[in-house]
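Researcher: Here's my situation. A collaborator sent me these components and asked whether they could plausibly form a single complex. I don't have experimental data yet, so a predicted model of the whole assembly would be a useful starting point for our discussion.
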Amino acid sequence: MTTRPELRLGGHLAPGIIAVALFVIMAVVFVGAPLGDPVGFDDATAIQNETLQSESPTGDYGSVSANGQTYAVAYNGSEETANVSVANDPGVGVDFREVDTTGDGQSDTVYAISRTSITENIGYLMFAVDSDQRSAPGETFLVAFEIIDMVLVGALVGAVVLARRDEGGEVVAALGLRDSDESPGTSAGQVAADGGTEDGGDN
Amino acid sequence: MAVDTSYYLILSAAVFCTGLFGILTRRNALLFLMSVELMLNAANINLVAFSQYYGNLTGQVFALFTMALAAAEVAVGIGIILVLYRNFEDVDVAEAATMRW
Amino acid sequence: MALAELVAFALFAIVTVASSVGVVLVEDVWHSALFLGVALLSVAVHYVMQQAEFLAAMQILVYVGGVLILITFAVMLMREDDTTEVVEA
């Protein structure tokens, strides 16, 4: 049978005015909240850049901050093949790219670019893996994970415990030993070996 | 480039208040459960919105935990509602006013 | 780009809020469950728009694949064998 949804309106909706009032209050607060632009997870663009300090022709040096760490950077200032060498190896989670921002043909800014995906970072944070591939800030959640693990086991046990019923004063659980299997009272599906003739065969 | 965080906050407030509206106005235990799901989802929207606002992954990880707990809560809640339905022949939350012991 | 994103957000926000209101306002519990499915799926879209792709996948797997199926089971176990009358008091 197919039915179309019908609204259930009436006087019972009166207590809902509290919820509507709460929404109005929340909306007023949120509209007036001084929130700027979201930072976001820019894993394809620069996280942070810092203009290199030296203007010397032999080589520039400077520092780049990425993922809460500061890396010392030095690179030779040739135009085409300016390659960035990083003093303390940041691991494979961060890439460096030099960009010419002033338009004089010289690379003057180093961008640090995260190469680790958000999903990968979630895994590192959730299991508190101290990986150098981690590239997004966040807290680790190993203890919370274990606690919720236990709660889920409790929920499973609770669901199994709830799934039982009274059968003539005796509690029958969904899981567990059922010694009443051998009793003749519940043997409706049992096949009598003698064809059921001895009992009359009419039960 | 991204949508303003306050828009997501308003969306989350709307969903949350809808869930609250359902809990306040309906008497069906199953609708209670669905309304609680709506409110948990509103909280998750908030967590993800602020996760993006601060560029910090803590909110997303926490939203994952919320989801796991919501799933467990629904599993137990539905067990309770089925027992309620068997004992009281109804899922009206106002009917179940007595316990066995 | 920003305008397109805003339009997409508004569209899916309308879907989310409308189906949430549908959950609490419709007469039949089964219709409520279907509206809840729409609401949960549209929340997953909002997650994708906020760079939380993994969370969106988990939303669909856990909520639509788990919670909604459980609720569907409960609704169908509790529906009275009827033609017009519904369980809702």
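Model: Some features of this prediction you could bring to your collaborator: The longest helix of chain A spans residues 142-162. The mean pLDDT of chain A is 66.
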